[in-house]
Amino acid sequence: MTLTQLSTFVLVARLGSVKAAAGALGVSEPAVSQALSALRQHLGDPLIERAGTGMRLTPAGTRLLPVASQMVSLGADAEAAVRAGQGAPEQLRVVASSAVVEFVAPPLVDTFAEQSGRKIETSSGVAASDEMPVLVGNRFADVAIGPNLGADRTSELHSEPVFRAQLILVASGSTLPHGPPDRWPWLVDPSVTDPDSDCARLLRRLHVNEAKTRVFPNQTAAWAAAADGAGVAPAIAHLVSERVRRGELRVVDTSITPVETTWYATALPPERRSTAADKFLHFLHTATAMRVMRKPGAGVPPSRFRPPIYVTLWNSPD
């Protein structure tokens, strides 16, 4: 029995499927299945069984889950202790919504590392709203930037607002869509598959059918298609402002846009979070961090769209 196997079990149990766990880790489903199968064989119990369209824990799996979560957390503590003893850099692993990762997270964590005066190894990756509390709560990530994950009073996670933004709609600078919004062609990034994302909520409010949407690798690609006249794309106002200023895109008004939104930073309680995470949370409220979050970015390649913890399963034992 290894920490890799226990980590896999925790993610499958918390997220509800092998597919979801694989997506959160950025690895193939067979890699997740292999690690889970090895744990089942070692313990002599299925641990997780199919139940209709979902999965459920066996009695043994139910008892194992809190123990496995503690062991995974202790494993993170052990790794951090060894790294500190070796003089290795601290780790800061940030997960965020796709727009934040595409434009803001990489320069934000890089700026933090440069200004901290400490040796810090940073990484950032995309996570869906329902994945973020699992990744942070089980020490797979240190900080999440996105929705308010601490609103549930039963959650041990602490969320604090760090930035306010507006969600708008943009289309070609030379043409405008015709008819009501539910008839427009919609150009969206992968966040639309997250039902709790700002983009998904907006499309639901406008009664947009899935058949009217085209999903692009990221917002930059969706905006490029919109500039070519292919349809309407949601956008964070301050991130797309330069393209609007140049006339490549124009703002499309509806009865419900712009939509006010807030980015929250979420982490474990102070006594359980890492020193790097604690300092990063303080950094997010500085003028420097505000400038980075306000500055429009040019996007990052889709290959960056993965949580920074994906490496943990590549060498899963049989």
From the structure above, extract its key features.
alpha/beta, 20% strand, D-Maltodextrin-Binding Protein, domain 2, disordered C terminus, globular, 42% helix, 3 domains, single chain, seven-stranded mixed beta sheet, 11 strands, two-stranded antiparallel ribbon, 318 residues, Arc Repressor Mutant, subunit A
3D structure, described in words:
The chain has 318 residues and is of the alpha/beta class. It is 42% helix and 20% strand. The strands form three sheets. Strands 3, 4, 5, 6, 9, 10 and 11 form a seven-stranded mixed beta sheet that branches. Helix 1 (3-15) packs across helix 2 (18-25), helix 1 (3-15) crosses helix 4 (59-86) and helix 5 runs antiparallel to helix 11.
Report, as a whole number of angstroms, the end-to-end distance. Answer: 10 Å
Inertia-based shape: globular
Query: In total, how many domains does the architecture comprise?
Result: 3
Number of contiguous helices: 11
Task: Output the structural class.
Answer: alpha/beta
Biggest sheet layout: 7 strands, mixed
Radius of gyration: 21 Å
Strand element count? 11
Rounded average pLDDT: 86
Q: What would you say the CATH architecture of the largest domain is?
A: 3-Layer(aba) Sandwich
Strand content: 15-25%
CATH class of the largest domain: Alpha Beta
Low-confidence segments, given as residue ranges, are: 296-318
Q: Helicity, in percent?
A: 40-55%
Under CATH, the homologous superfamily of the largest domain reads: Periplasmic binding protein-like II
SSE string, helices as H and strands as E: HHHEEHEHEHEEEHEHEHEEHH
Looking at the structure, the CATH topology of the largest domain is D-Maltodextrin-Binding Protein, domain 2
